[in-house]
Each structure stands twice: as C-alpha cells, then as structure tokens.
Write a structure and sequence with these properties.
With 349 residues, the chain is α/β, with parallel strands linked by helices. It has ten helices and 14 strands. Among the domains are: 145 residues, P-loop containing nucleotide triphosphate hydrolases (Rossmann fold, 3-Layer(aba) Sandwich); 68 residues, Alpha-Beta Plaits (2-Layer Sandwich), CATH 3.30.70. The chain is 29% helix and 24% strand. The strands form three sheets. It has a six-stranded mixed sheet, sandwiched between helices. The protein is elongated.
Length: 349
C-alpha cells in the first residue's frame, strides 16, 4: 500500500449540544481503494464524511484529502473531491444533459460530458427531465454530478437506498467501473451485502465510534474459530442420524453442539474441522444426508460480535459499552474491537 493515504481522518469528533454524533473516529484511505464506512442509520457515518468534505465544522480531530486540511481550507479541496450526498434533488424540469453541463461549468477542468454520460449509461436519457427518471437513473445522475469535476476522490453516501435489488446490483457494477478510471471512492452504506461486495477495506461505525476495521475477509476471519454445518437428514433415517450426531457431540473434540435448526435440519457446531467429524459418523450408521451446507459468516456476524446486539440498519444506536453520550441521543457507545492483523493496522484505529 502507498505510504501516503489520499484521505486521512484522525480522532474526529462532532457534537450537537450534548449529543455526540462522532466520537474519536480515525481511518485512512489508500489511492484507488473503494473504502467503506458501514453502520446502522444514525451511527455517525454521514456526519463523518460531511466533516471530511468541509461541509460541517468538526469539534476536534483532523481531516485531510490529498494533503489538504479540509477543516482549515475546505475550498482548496473542492476541485479534488466529488460528493454524492445522501439526500439531494434537482428541479423537476431540468434534463439529464442540462444538469451535467450546468455542473461542469462550475469547474475549471471538468470531465468530458459525453464520456461521463456514456460511462454511467445516461447518454440515452440526456434529454429526459429529472422528474421522469427512475430511482436508479436519478442515482446515476447523482454520481455523474459528483464526478463531473474530474475529482480524484469521490464520496458516495447511501448510494443505493430505496433502489430495488436489480437496480442496486447495477449500481454496484457502476461503482466498480468508476473506480477503474482511477477515482478513489469513499462509500457510505448501511447495507452489509453492499460493503462485502464492493469494499477493499472498511470501518464499521456504531454510536459514533469505530468498532471494527479491516478488509471484509479480515473482519470475518477475525471472529472465533467455530464453524457450523447444517444437514437435512432423510426422514426415514433422521432418528438414527440424530443419535449418531448426539454421540459425536459427547465424545469428539471437534464437535461442540448439535441443535435443531427447524424444517428437518440439524445444525452441528464445532471447530474448523467439524465437517471432517460429521461425515464419517453418519457414514458409520449408513445415513446419507439429503443436503449438507456450511454456514457462511458475514459482516453482520462481525457487528454482533463487537457490539453484542443484532444488526438493525434502521434502529437508533443502542446502549452498549460505556455510559458516554452517543450519536442520535443513544445512552452509550460500543467498545472498539480491531480485528485487523497487528502488522497491518496502520492508521485505522
């Protein structure tokens, strides 16, 4: 990785009266990355990037984009940074082409409008008025307006909120296309699947604090070593199979528990080698499962591990950890658990 990050946030703090929205957030973004800021609504994600972009004044800490202190001199970074805000709208009657050309006129060295419209699949719609665009088309236009100034860094805030699954996946493809042009992307999202699909690295923010940081794979692999195998046993052999698995759980060091997962499925939990124990045990009693699946863990499991509660993207931050004031009025914040390897933490804490 480059020794000089293009984005640096160090010990950022932002309050609104007694309400703490962002509390000691730090991370660094390398050139060419898609870097994610993941967390439930109200966690402090948008406030963080608005401070980074110089749109809000921070109460403490430092924010830099390409070496520019965005708190001290926000104007100096506006030609280098493109921002797609969480909530934005244009006049109903302005067309796609008019909007992009208008925004291009604000910059000394704008992107080629035609090439940008082609990149974002908007060329066929450049004569369409804003009010007549679909949700996905409005999002693509919002990205176009963020990129028209030829920025080196783009902040995309809650890019796919409100889109149907097909439009969401199309937008993901688009983000990867934009990154391939050399733009570093800071992606703000509350969708776990989106972060797992797109982000090279990310921070998980809860109640205004970073509670985990690393690549999606590092975060998932940093959980405990337990694994779960789910088996659907043939009805005629189910009793014999369950008995064999119960004996296995009582005697085998790689098997910890056997539980009913519902709908005729048995869940066997143990070490990373649990599958190697289950298969021969069933073979010994001549039981062949109809279906065998290993349970894949995700960033949602990471969130549960570091906060102690389930992930609800729309819930206000819960009282977890210390009793300090938290974002959106929550009475407490979660403690950070850095799951990245020690040698690779850098400035992510």
């Amino acid at each position: 990785m480059s020794a000089t990050p293009v984005v640096e946030v160090s010990h950022l703090r932002k309050t609104y009266g007694e309400k703490v929205a962002v509390d000691d957030v730090s991370f660094a973004v390398q050139p060419g990355e898609i870097f994610g800021i993941l967390g439930p609504n109200g966690a402090g994600k948008t406030t963080t990037v608005e401070c980074l972009a110089g749109l809000r004044h921070a109460d403490g800490g430092a924010t830099r984009v390409l070496g520019v202190d965005t708190q001290a001199d926000p104007g100096a970074v506006r030609g280098l940074l493109g921002v797609q805000l969480q909530e934005s709208a244009l006049h109903d009657k302005i067309t796609v082409g008019e909007a992009v050309r208008l925004f291009a006129s604000f910059y000394p060295h704008p992107a080629d409008v035609g090439e940008l419209l082609d990149l974002l699949d908007l060329a066929p719609h450049q004569g369409v008025q804003y009010a007549k665009l679909s949700g996905g088309q409005k999002q693509r236009l919002s990205i176009a307006l963020a990129l028209v100034g030829s920025p080196r860094v783009a902040i995309l805030d809650e890019l796919t909120t409100g889109l149907d699954p097909q439009a969401r996946r199309s937008t993901w493809d688009l983000v990867e296309r934009v990154r391939s042009t050399g733009v570093t992307i800071l992606l703000v999202t509350h969708f776990m699947e989106e972060a797992e699909r797109l982000c090279d690295r990310l921070v998980v923010i809860d109640a205004g604090r970073v509670v985990a940081a690393g690549t999606p794979l590092e975060l998932v692999d940093g959980l405990d070593d337990t694994r779960t195998v789910q088996l659907r046993l043939p009805e005629v052999d189910a009793a014999r199979g369950r008995e064999a698995l119960a004996r296995l759980a009582a005697s085998h060091p790689d098997v910890q528990s056997v539980d009913d997962a519902g709908s005729g499925v048995v869940a066997v939990t143990g070490t990373r080698r649990v599958l190697f124990a289950v298969v021969p045990a069933l073979a010994q009693v001549d039981v062949l499962p109809d279906d065998v699946r290993t349970v894949t863990r995700s960033l949602e499991d990471v969130f549960v591990a570091v906060t102690g509660r389930s992930y609800d993207p729309d819930a206000a931050p819960a009282a977890v950890g210390s009793g300090a004031p938290a974002a959106d009025g929550a009475e407490g914040v979660g403690r950070r658990r850095d799951l990245t390897p020690t040698a690779d933490r850098g400035d992510r804490s």
